Amino acid sequence: MKTEGTQTAPNVVEDVFDGQATGVEVEDAGETHLVIQKPWNPEQIRVSTSAFSLRNILDLIDEESLELAPDFQRGQVWRASQKSLLVESLLLQIPLPAFYFAEDSDGSFRVVDGLQRLSTLHDFVRGGEKSFALTRLDHLKDLEGHRFADLPVPFKRRIYNTQLTVNVIDPSTPREVTYEIFKRINTGGTPLNAQEIRHCMSRPRSRDILKRMTHTHAFDMATGGRLKDHIRMNDREMALRFAAFWLHGLEAYHERPVMESFLMAATEMLDDPNRVPDEQVEALERAFERAMTNAHLVFEEHAFRKWPLGALGRSPINRALFETWSIALADYETADLARRREEIVHSARRRMSRDFEYLDAITSSTADRRRVDYRFTAAAQDAGAGR
After folding, report:
1. Which secondary structure element, helix H or strand E, spans residue 111, and what is its range?
2. End of a domain among 130, 160, 185?
3. Structural domain includes residue 26
4. Which of 27, 78, 176, 370 has the smallest number of Cβ neighbours within 10 A?
């Protein structure tokens, strides 16, 4: 360990969303764009523009040919008045901005841009008893309080016949480019973060795996209950980071040292039962639960948080600490860790107090290959303290 005097941990900044603290430290990954590994042939990148009637799109949703990325937390943030104004726009025949769909090889579609708008319209038209009532309309005041079933037939027909412009990304488009398109055209008041984009691009298998991993008592204990069903999907991202390093190993990151690309590759693996069969998924989930149990045993309420010597209070969860310490603790027996707990905690806290290089590795440019290496090595050494 490099010791150059004693310092406290650098300033810890907690991420805030919609005015509320998220419980997770802001991360400076040191990268802003996914690196596309090879030049692509522009002729292979096809985005076609089509017109769909709203009735056609709602039918696609109902028959599960168009996926609205279920379990997407931010999909429910619109107020009733916002939803009503969207419906009023259709009734007034005001064109909506274009939508983006990504087409899969089996002919099904996923929403790339326009998820909230389509979810709102589907809830209103096909929600049945759960359909919301129109409120605070600007122009069609006589329709306030009406659900879809209450509308006069001409208005129902107008909604169904509304033509929506949809840009469809062809399945032959390279995945990295689709991801980049997703990032560029993502609209709305608050852009999606990287994990939210991965969630929308992924298939149900990986989403179900990550949800199971983060819906355990062990995970709640290790994270202090702050991450369950996290509004920015930080819970799923941290589970995915564990899965990526557990499946690939640190060596694979050396070959592709861009965190966004590394995590997207892990998502694709989890979606493919031929690459990660069910038995391996079960082993992954057991290892993750064991890691969470061990992390809480050793660090208690300070698990995955900066905790230098002399620190008061509790810091927010740090992603870099989560990925390294979860991997470091996954293979240890509980009895062994319980016996060495004091030595492990002292070694880790001393490092957070005196090792400047380690503090850099968990604070800034955290996706840098050398810093990833350093913090994984450090966590492994500290986890072995007292043996």
Report:
1. strand 109-113
2. 185
3. no
4. 370
Close Cβ partners of 111 (under 8 Å, ≥ 6 residues apart)? 66, 67, 68, 69, 99, 100, 101, 118, 200
What's the structural domain count of the chain?
2
Quick one: pLDDT at residue 345?
96
What is the C-alpha to C-alpha distance for residues 235 and 292, in angstroms, rounded to an integer?
13
At 87-117, the pLDDT tens digits run: 999 999 999 999 988 888 788 888 878 888 8
Mean pLDDT of the chain: 86
* Cβ-based neighbours of 164, under 8 Å, separated by 6 or more: 51, 52, 53, 54, 57, 96, 98, 99
Q: What angle do CA 232, 234, 235 make, to 5 degrees?
A: 120
* pLDDT tens track for 255-264: 877 888 899 9
* Same-domain pairing of 140 and 258: no
pTM over 0.85: no
Q: Cβ contacts of residue 211 below 8 Å, gap of 6+?
A: 71, 236
Please check whether residue 5 lies inside any domain of the structure.
no
Q: Match 């966004």 to its residue by tokens.
A: 260
Give a yes or no: residue 20 inside a domain: no
Q: Which domain holds residue 363?
A: 193-383
Sign of the torsion angle spanned by Cα atoms 66, 69, 71, 76: negative
